[in-house]
Amino acid sequence: MAGLKVLQLINDNTAVALNYGVFRRKDIGSTAQTVMFYDMGSGSTTATIVSYQTVKTKESGTQPQLQIQGVGFDRGLGGFEMDLRLRDHLAKLFNDQKKSPKDVRQNHRAMAKLLKESQRLKTVLSANVDFMAQVEGLIDDIDFKAKVTRVEFEELCSDLFERVPGPVQEALTAADMKLEDIEQVILVGGATRVPKVQEVLLKAVGKMELGKNINADEAAAMGAVYQAAALSKAFKVKPFLVRDAAIYPIQVEFNREVEEEEGIKTLKHNKRILFQRMAPYPQRKVITFNRYTDDFAFNINYGDLSFLSQGDLSLFGSLNLTTVKLSGVGQSFQKHGDAESKGIKAHFNMDESGVLLLDRVESVFETIVEEKEEESTLTKLGNTISTLFGGGSSEPTPNVTEPVQDVPPEEEEVPPESRKEINEAQNNEDKDNETKNDSGKSPTEEKNEEKSEDTASKTETLEKGDQKSENVEMEKKTKPQKRTKISEDVPMELIINDIMDPTAEDLISSKKKLQDLTDRDLAKQEREKILNSLEAFIFETQDKLYQEDHQQVATKEEQEQILSKLKETSDWLDEEGYGATTRQLKEKLSQLKGLCKDVFFRVAERRKWPELLTDLDNTLNTSNFFLRGAKLIPGDDQIFTEVELNMLEKVINETTVWKNETVAVQEKRSPHERPVLLSRDIESKLLLLQREMNYLLNKAKFAKPKPKPKAKNETSTDAGYKVNATTEDESKNLKTAESIDLTA
């Protein structure tokens, strides 16, 4: 319904263990390291034993893996129970102070305030030995203040602290381990910050210290995020294998008719354990029903739950998870009557999320078929060539059957509950085989007669010579045989006693309900927003009407009318406003804004005038200065046309005239009247001037200077000749001076 694609479900402590292992993958080796995570949250406490070691996989080679070994929990031990006891203690202290004749415990709002204060108090007492609890206006505007010590808090929760070691012992029992096997105990969850919890737990586990090297609040979320990234195709992370464990055992139960010695048929109840307690998953299992030849049913139930308390057992209700009804079993036996039955196989799968699924049920038969003799190489080559050039064989394709195979390695065959049934069945079969035949002879006598007959026939064969021996050799050559498996799916009906998946109609109804709730929330938010806007407008307008700039532009009649309407609306809010609809609130706000619109407009215009008029004057001065400079440019260097300069001059003159006339008219008008000088008109004139100026400035910036006429070549040539002659004379004199210095 939320539009999210769920990749996998993961237990919170498994996610914590993953987050812990990801950042320590270099420390994980082939030797298993065992760590216990003790998680005390708001409502429950869980202890989880996890082992880390590297394993080899076909897909990614050697990778680290975490395996859940044991889990213990206490459903009612958590920080919220401590908060409730502190809250009740604060309520008792307030009642003892006799500040109010009322019992604070009968006031839900006051108890909610005390609960919030107790949560803060528990946090502060974790670092301080005492603290002053205080709540303003607890009830009837009476403040509450009382001192609470850590000793008092520990006495209130003494029975809770005694239950702290319980999950540890349960986890050790489930994992079949001892405390010496645990290398480290790591704290998770906010309630583990209580000093007494740490003290009792440290004493119970017998370690030097407790591990606090993970973020107790974010570890579970970060581990789940890493697993989601590993499953998603959008991210690439280093593999870290996760093997969770089933906390509760699951078994299959069914009834079968058994015939007693006197011929009386009775129903016998059978059980097969499908998944043991703490069985790792993901895992596949197969159960074979060997003695059924007709339709039957079986139940998937929880197994032995004797390790749970009576309180936990009461939460389960019925132990039955699913009832499976099979149909078409008898038809499959009739269809394959000549084949040997290998039973009805039910394939179960507990996936990565710990969800048990019945993938399929099939009836399996085994038959013997004769294989064709192996053709020689030349025969195969000839058949291949004839197939290529002849367009293939015209013979129809025979029915394909599966060769007999063992259970695939990923599927584990569930053994029977007891071997007693099989032994009894074998004994009965042996007794049947030992019964005499029609001739009245025992099987032993028949065997002796068969042996004597065989001896006589062999002697007779040897006397007949080589021709008879060749016939015997031909008879011994039998055709090769192959055992094949035939499987046929069995229709099944699942009666799930667990929570059913919602139907399409349920999804539509739920989405509609969620959308209705969302619409109600949005409508509530809109109403609160309009209500706040209306209240704020009333208070702000009442304050503005006493300010000088508003009093200057509003007449007394306008002020009285507005103030009267504001007071009327304020009284209406106090009496009827909190039950008014959003539409009514909008109408009230619209009426007030329409009444104050003219006054606010005049004030806003007067506030904008100084800045806008200053900008307009500065732009006019700059434009006039630029225009005078542009007109002084000589004709040969002029880059602006006469039309452009005239256009700028026209805009300057028109703007100056408009400004002077409009300002003069505005000065004669009363502040109570609608202004003639409008801010939008000033902005329009300002933009027109700036546009003309920017056009001319850009043209001047990118204009190229006109080329100047070149000087005559003769003058430059004579001057160059004279310079060259002088340079040559100076160089000669310099050489002469150097020679004189050398001879001196």
UniProtKB/TrEMBL annotation:
Pfam families: HSP70 (PF00012)
Subcellular location: Endoplasmic reticulum lumen
Cellular component annotations (GO), alphabetically ordered: endoplasmic reticulum chaperone complex; endoplasmic reticulum lumen
Protein's UniProt name: Hypoxia up-regulated protein 1
Gene Ontology MF annotations: ATP binding; ATP-dependent protein folding chaperone
The UniProt record lists the keyword Nucleotide-binding: yes
Compositional bias of kind Basic residues: 701-710
The keyword Endoplasmic reticulum is annotated on this UniProt entry: yes
Family: Belongs to the heat shock protein 70 family.
The species this protein was found in: Poeciliopsis prolifica (blackstripe livebearer)
